[in-house]
From TrEMBL:
UniProt ANK repeat ranges: 36-68, 69-101, 102-134, 135-167, 168-191, 230-262, 263-295, 296-312
Signal peptide: none
UniProt key word Membrane: no
PROSITE patterns for the chain: ANK_REP_REGION (PS50297), ANK_REPEAT (PS50088)
Location of the region described as Disordered in the Swiss-Prot/TrEMBL record: 1-36
Matching Gene3D superfamilies: Ankyrin repeat-containing domain
Compositional bias annotation for Polar residues: 23-36
Keywords: ANK repeat, Repeat
Source organism per UniProt: Cuerna arida
Name assigned to this protein: Uncharacterized protein
Pfam family, one: Ank
Protein's UniProt keywords contain Transcription: no
Length: 312
């Protein structure tokens, strides 16, 4: 099979969905009748029992002790918004940026849980705002994912860098768009002064046929032909999924109908290969070159025929 056909999928080596954090590490259930002081300390912090926390600290429990997952008292108190315990732990010198095995700090955990007041206290006490977990998640990404617009605004005000992406290349804006969090999307766009964070958000909008999100991204003359890591434009993505509405919007914003991605693959090649007849008709109507050839000499007609799409 020619190389061009093998590489014509717009999803090649590129996740088409922003990763979603389903939660941070958990505290194992107590199995015995009695627990050791460290475990009792962690459980008291999670439950919000300040008196018990202080009692155990005064008895000599290590303030930075953690369980097998790396969760410590600060993490657990942060998750459930126990401001008094968080403040007391910090006052007594616990490590503010101690990370779990997954690389999550207390600020990550507070952001994911929407605990804005806890996030403020952590940052006031020196928590690193742009810290990334093992998979590249930032506190801003986690807050954006869960639609915690208050936390998002606070983190941005403290210098959160929304261009920091996960290991797969997804930004906070991308995950907010994917999850349909309009408020957070608006906040992130308002704070995007450099216009550098919108990849692959526009590609996600193209896949979802989400004209509303795409229109937000395309305002202020944002480049409609921005390319993904694999070299494809949003119009290639729209062609792949047959999303004519978004293709029309991209065309109105002066997207290049004949943009040749790697191996000289155009949107018409993609639509033809995947049998998206309405998209093929739309692209031709808008001036797509029907005789354009890939690096291996394939025209859109070749692509349609080889994939068995007789109607195309």
């Amino acid at each position: 099979m020619p190389a061009a056909e093998m590489t014509m999928t717009t999803d090649e080596k590129e996740p088409d969905k922003a990763p979603v954090v389903n939660g941070t590490e958990t505290l194992p259930r107590q199995t015995g009748k009695q627990s050791d002081p460290s475990t009792a300390f962690l459980r008291a912090a999670r439950a919000g029992h300040l008196d018990k926390v202080l009692e155990l600290l005064d008895s000599g429990v290590d303030i930075n002790s953690c369980n097998a997952n790396g969760l410590n008292a600060l993490h657990l108190a942060a998750k459930d918004g126990h401001v008094d315990i968080v403040s007391e732990l910090l006052k007594r010198g616990c490590v503010v940026d101690a990370a779990t095995k997954k690389g999550n700090t207390a600020l990550h955990i507070a952001a994911l849980a929407g605990q804005e007041e806890v996030a403020r206290i952590l940052v006031q006490n020196g928590a690193v705002v742009n810290v990334q977990s093992l998979n590249g998640f930032t506190p801003l990404y986690m807050a954006a994912q869960e639609n915690h617009d208050g936390v998002v605004k606070f983190l941005l005000s403290k210098g959160a860098n929304q261009a920091l992406a996960t290991e797969d290349g997804f930004t906070p804006l991308a995950v907010a768009m994917q999850q349909g969090h309009d408020k957070v999307v608006a906040v992130l766009l308002e704070n995007d002064t450099r216009g550098k964070v919108r990849l692959p958000a526009l590609h996600i909008a193209a896949k979802k046929d989400d004209c509303k999100a795409a229109a937000l991204l395309l305002q202020n003359e944002h480049n409609p032909d921005v390319t993904s890591k694999s070299g494809f434009t949003p119009l290639h993505i729209a062609a792949h999924y047959g999303n004519v509405n978004i293709a029309n919007l991209l065309h109105q914003k002066n997207a290049n109908i004949n943009y040749a991605a790697k191996h000289n693959i155009t949107p018409l090649h993609v639509a033809s290969k995947w049998g998206k007849l309405p998209m093929v008709q739309f692209l031709i109507e808008k001036g797509a070159a029907i005789e354009s050839k890939t690096r291996d000499g394939l025209t859109p007609l070749h692509c349609a025929a080889r994939s068995g799409h007789d109607q195309v």
